Amino acid sequence: MSINKEKYREILKAIEGKAQLIAVSKTKPNEDILDLYKEGQRDFGENYVQELADKAVQLPTDIKWHFIGHLQSNKVKFIASFVHLIHGVDSLSLLKEINKQGQKNQRVIDCLLQIHIASEETKFGLDEIELNSIAEFISSSPLPFVQIKGLMGMASFSDNQQLVSDEFKQLKALYTKYAQSFHHPFSVLSMGMSGDYKIAIAEGSNAVRIGSLLFGARNYDK
Ligand SMILES: *Cc1c(COP(=O)(O)O)cnc(C)c1O
């Protein structure tokens, strides 16, 4: 397999001045990551803790690694020393564990709260009531080794563009509503993947997570 450099240029052009690109390299070999790295890409996203930890020691140290999968509390320790941004935080207990591991490593770990926007049941994420209660908890008892930078969400996997765009609108509205509710104003709204990134940008995304358009279809998903 090899990367699609034309697509890479095309995506960069489409998001220029609006969003940053996180190249989702899960299940893809180091050679593919290095190919994109040589094109100038520095932000990469991974879903699996062990795979991310392995790649991080094998690949250039100036890569910014985004963890975009569902993170289990007992695995935070494996990525806490180097992860650039954790996109999928969906509980207060996970946030507390990230804070604890941040303290151990003496670094503040940047996080996004994942919001459930899709109509599908299977996707992880918080609803607004849970988001609100995390905001309230943190305002009274700060977690000094965590910084909430914004929100992340996944739209329904659907050909219905109206549905997808409504779901992104919903996320953007929450982003705006809660932008000042944490210790630092929000700066990252992570929404949009290979199939829907153009809609996401139109709805206000400033960070897209794109895998298969760049690296080709994945052979397996764990
Ligand atoms: C796999 C994945 C992506 C990228 O998906 P593509 O459709 O290949 O672009 C983006 N975000 C999350 C959370 C993912 O798990």
Task: Provide a descriptive summary of the structure in words.
With 222 residues, this protein is an alpha/beta fold. It has a single domain, classed as TIM Barrel (Alpha-Beta Barrel). It is 38% helix and 18% strand. It contains 8 helices and 8 strands; from the N terminus they run αβαβαββαβαβαβαβα. It has helices at residues 5-15, 30-38, 49-58, 92-105, 128-140, 161-177, 197-202, 212-215, and strands at 20-24, 43-46, 64-67, 85-89, 109-115, 146-153, 188-190, 207-210. Strands 7-6-5-4-3-2-1-8 form an 8-stranded parallel β-sheet. β2 (43-46), α3 (49-58) and β3 (64-67) form a beta-alpha-beta unit. The longest helix has 17 residues, at 161-177. It starts with a helix and ends in a 7-residue tail after the last helix. The structure holds pyridoxal-5'-phosphate. Pyridoxal-5'-phosphate binds next to β8.
Overview in brief:
The chain is of the alpha/beta class and 222 residues long. The chain has helices spanning 5-15, 30-38, 49-58, 92-105, 128-140, 161-177, 197-202, 212-215, and strands at residues 20-24, 43-46, 64-67, 85-89, 109-115, 146-153, 188-190, 207-210.
